[in-house]
Design goal:
One of its GO terms (biological process) is heart process. The chain is α/β, with parallel strands linked by helices and 562 residues long. The protein has three domains: 163 residues, no CATH class; 92 residues, Elongation Factor Tu (Ef-tu), domain 3 (Beta Barrel); 152 residues, 3-Layer(aba) Sandwich (Rossmann fold), CATH 3.40.50.80. The protein is built from 21 helices and 17 strands. The strands form four sheets. The protein has a seven-stranded antiparallel sheet with strand order 10-5-6-9-8-7-11. The protein has a six-stranded parallel sheet with strand order 15-14-13-12-16-17, with helices on both faces. The radius of gyration is 33 Å and the shape is elongated.
Amino acid sequence: MAVSWRSWLANEGVKHLCLLIWLSMNVLLFWKTFLLYNQGPEYHYLHQMLGLGLCLSRASASVLNLNCSLILLPMCRILLAFLRGSQKVRKNNDGKSHVTCVHVAAHLVNALNFSVNYSEDFVELNAARYRNEDPRKLLFTTVPGLTGVCMVVVLFLMITASTYAIRVSNYDIFWYTHNLFFVFYMLLMLHVSGGLLKYQTNLDTHPPGCINLNRTSSQNISLPEYFSEHFHEPFPEEFSKPEEFTQNTFVKICMEEPRFQANFPQTWLWISGPLCLYCAERLYRYIRSNKPVTIISVISHPSDVMEIRMVKENFKARPGQYIILHCPSVSALENHPFTLTMCPTETKATFGVHLKIVGDWTERFRDLLLPPSSQDSEILPFIQSRSYPKLYIDGPFGSPFEESLNYEISLCVAGGIGVTPFASILNTLLDDWKPYKLRRLYFIWVCRDIQSFRWFADLLCMLHNKFWQENRPDYVNIQLYLSQTDGIQKIIGEKYHALNSRLFIGRPRWKLLFDEIAKYNRGKTVGVFCCGPNSLSKTLHKLSNQNNSYGTRFEYNKESFS
């Protein structure tokens, strides 16, 4: 089916516009810097020595400065919560590694050219100490060279450890190597302070390429010899005297040696602002999260899921937001984000999260909170409160799911444990749905295990009963899908009869589902929210952009997890 331009603009327009602006800034900055070092008179002698490598290294460096400053902004979680406003904020740093390769390759050529094109006329311009010096010495004995090599190693470790295979197999490796970004920025600050590349400061008294008569006289070199040496051409025979030559040609004569000075580190100007902003936010977050929470209860759910309910003074959050948990007894440095499944309200201060037990961190955390024999049991903190380890939270932070209550119609699709962002929304609707714009919610939950539905089965039953009692049965449309079955095809328990009638075996037929929603909500805008595997997300994303004959527009939002 054809793509709907209205839906495409709503879902992709802002993303592509931001990408276009970002690409334009990179191209413009690269080209402007390239021309400066290629044609700028202050870099005439440096360009003669290094050639194209100088232009490419400095142009790519300017692009890296821009991206090294921009990449810090998405790391400012509080700032991002204000900037995003909705799901349309995207982080894209795919081009950084490619520009880094260009920058490194150009500097390798520069190191070779410094050695091969060593000039005795401009000693202070040389990075090499003598002609044909081993370029490897320039890489490992100078501050820019050594810090550059270290930055390449750090960046390589961060990129390789960020791959999906390593994140899944050993998350600790990803976590600790990713925090090397602080080392990277410290090396970057040192890298630009070496002052190897210099520009000419006395352009007025020594125009680039001019003939210095003082040098020719002090070195007993005649003008014809100087001309042949520096211009690689014989002195014109038709001019018998040097004065006749200088009067009839455009050769510039100067009486002063060129003077050179190292550039001010432009990188400091680029990254100082974002880096100070990031450090200030980290300090604020540290102060805010310095007080531990009080754990109210810990509940073990089927399919290796654990629920923690807690309270903290003056803690406020909105449905769909997430927090970061830090337990020093598990790991002194490691922390993990978890979506709130229960938010504090005006009448109750309790909030909670659900954790899927996967990986070493969650396993150690579970062993600290739950006794080995605990199954579907609740531990009251007033009896065993001292046995709980200290737990700190940072947040809350915004996510796309906050917008689900701001649509008149929302379609929320969850895959497995991806239901957690919607649990806080359902809890909020259970408390009071009238203050929000939302008037119809389609809730689709796909699980492989029938027991997984019990995580929030009670919540779904209470929500269903509430709207039936208020004569609003069409407010929430619940559909549960069991993608795999081992013979049990219903949720055990008499109170779950309402859910069993909405339980389907197999996977949803997404195209028919979208057509049904479009037909029932003609000419309206439907917010589509997804938290689940990438395959599910891609399917919903594609369907949201497609055209329909009912004039319904689907605006796509998503949160992915690995």
